[in-house]
What does this fold into?
Amino acid sequence: MRFRMTGPAQLMPVAALASMVLAVAGCSGSNPGADAAAQVAVEFHEMVSSGDPSAGCELLAPAVVEKLENGSAGTCGEKLSALDLPPATRANESKAFGSSAQVFLDEDTVFLTKTGGHWKITAAGCTSRGERPYDCELEGG
Amino acid sequence: MKHNPLLTNGLSITFAALFFGSLAGQAFSGLAYFNEQQTAENLEGISFWQYVTSSSFVVDVAENWQSEYLQFLLFIVLTVWLVQKGSPESKAIEDRGHGSEEDQLIGKFAKPESPKWAKTGGVKTWIFANSLGLVMATVFILSWLVQSVAGFSAFAEDQISNLQDPGTWSEYVASAEFWNRTLQNWQSEFLAVWSMVILSVYLRQRGSPESKPVGEAHDATGVSN
It folds into this structure.
């Protein structure tokens, strides 16, 4: 490859494309969806602790509802209230990347996915196991 | 004689078309693959626009860009000093180095039609004299930075969907994932340059400026079509 010197004007498209990709990458990082995810996580805990677990089921991802309803008899709401979920009330930190979010509540860690423009819970009642996946009371298949 | 601009710009037009065609192909095939994986994981598919602005697509583009620009940067800069006997990619052995101002048509040796910054001297001439390498280096660094940011975002998204902590950007740039993505691209670029430099000593492509004339001796250095 013998390269010939090109003028600055001919290099403009290269610089423009590089800045475009940089801008796109900036937008694809941690995003404002983190607040919305935190709100869903708090609402979910409020619903479960206030004795309206069937409303809490509305905030679960389909795979979680499916797993919850499998096996023994009972509705999603009944099985949800039977779980020993910690009574969280406040979000301390929330991280969202693309269609996944992790919310640290005062007494719980909750995982969410974005489905149809809404955040839905994929796991709750989770405790950290270091590098390994969290151990969760409630999770999908 | 005045030529058709399509003819005189054929190389850049062809490669621009190949670039945009390939990028579009990567976007569509990447979207199909991404959505296949989403379906397999019982997750919702995404639209074309969502995909091309996603960290998954951006990291795939950027990791290839950074390695290409690094390859060209090193090749442009190292061939100032390093030579390869018999290769048309190399200068003549005795021409190693920056070259004199007279060789480079700089300052008082500039011709009337020389670019303005080649005549002015000082910082402007230094910048212009190194502008190709500087731009290649800038695009390389920006692309690598984009790879790290988008790569972290994609990695974090995967981690969270696997119920794991996403970590931080600084942890990601020290991670096996980041360096595996980086080095698997670098090795292929360096292999391509290495083979081009050596193969062009012994092999010919008639009419190509990347080759020596067919009948030129194997040990003739700095000669090309």
Q: What stands out?
A: DSSP finds nine helices and no strands in chain B. Chain B touches chain A through 47 residues (CB under 8 Å).
